[in-house]
Amino acid sequence: MTATAAERFIWQMALEIEDGAVVATGVASPLAVLAIAVAKQTHAPRLTYISCVGSLNPQVMRLMGSSEDLAYLTGRTADVSIAELFDHARCGRVDNVFFGAVEVDGHGRTNLSAAGPLTRPKVKFPGVVGACSLRRWAKHPVIIVPRHNKRCLVHKVNIRSTVDDARRTRLLTDAAVFSIGPGGAILEALAGTATLADVQERTGFAFAASAHLAVIGDPPAAVRATIQALDPDRRSAELVGAAA
After folding, report:
1. Alpha-carbon span 111 to 59, nearest angstrom
2. Closest Cα to residue 5, out of 225, 229, 219, 154?
3. Helix axes of 30-41 and 221-230: crossing angle, nearest 10 degrees
């Protein structure tokens, strides 16, 4: 049976985490929570997880409705404050953080602030919170856009909320994987259900295609079973793919 877009995307995210890595999640990050739990139960059992709810290595048994749910305190080995999380990141002790964005461009800039001028915005977005700092401090930041479309993947962000001019960043969508940053975007991989023409049509920024374009495969059956067990309510399916 073919994997769903959500299962494929969660597996993409999980594979960004190496065994032994230190991974942190911020607010409003349910897909990251699920991906970390999947990685922990599959290829990265020795990862260390710092949750924004204030816990170190909680036992994530299922995806909750909020990434700040107090269920994510269960089984923790220690309490970790937000200030301590930022200290760890600033000292180079955090490997992975996943960042969402309302807009992303090919030079790696993201918009989490507003549509229109900040003085009189048409729409206010959730805001930067700590993303501008954590993105620069994490060793391997990853930007995620669960629904690949031109409204999110734009020629130039309306407001620059975060940027990392010193290095390139991985961008994962439900259709593709890009490297973005100084020098522009490079398409590195396509989902098995996507074509190059389809991605070009749905992307607002220009990009070069890698000479060795990879294909994003379905997760193995055992991994799919793990995802389904951790997400029995299929919350991830409501967030990934489909809507344009």
Report:
1. 32
2. 219
3. 130
Residue type, 222: A
Tokens 């269920």 identify what position?
71
Helical H runs in 187-237? Answer: 196-202, 221-230
* Domains of the chain from N-terminus onward: 5-234 (3.40.1080.10)
From first to last of its 244 residues, the chain has per-residue pLDDT tens of 789 999 999 999 999 999 999 999 988 899 999 999 999 999 999 999 999 999 999 999 999 988 889 999 999 999 999 999 999 999 999 999 999 999 999 999 999 999 988 889 999 998 888 899 999 999 999 999 999 999 999 999 999 999 999 999 999 999 999 999 999 999 999 998 899 999 999 999 999 999 999 999 899 999 999 999 999 999 999 999 876 5
Contact 112, 120 (CB under 8 A): no
- Quote the tokens at residue 102: 């309302």
Decide if 239 contacts 146 (C-beta within 8 A): yes
Helices (H), the chain: 5-15, 30-41, 82-90, 131-137, 196-202, 221-230
Please say whether the beta carbons of 21 and 50 come within 8 A.
Answer: no
In this structure, what is the dihedral angle of CA atoms 115, 121, 126, 129, given to the nearest 10 degrees? 100
Going by C-alpha positions, the residue among 244, 10, 8, 7 that lies closest to residue 142 is: 10
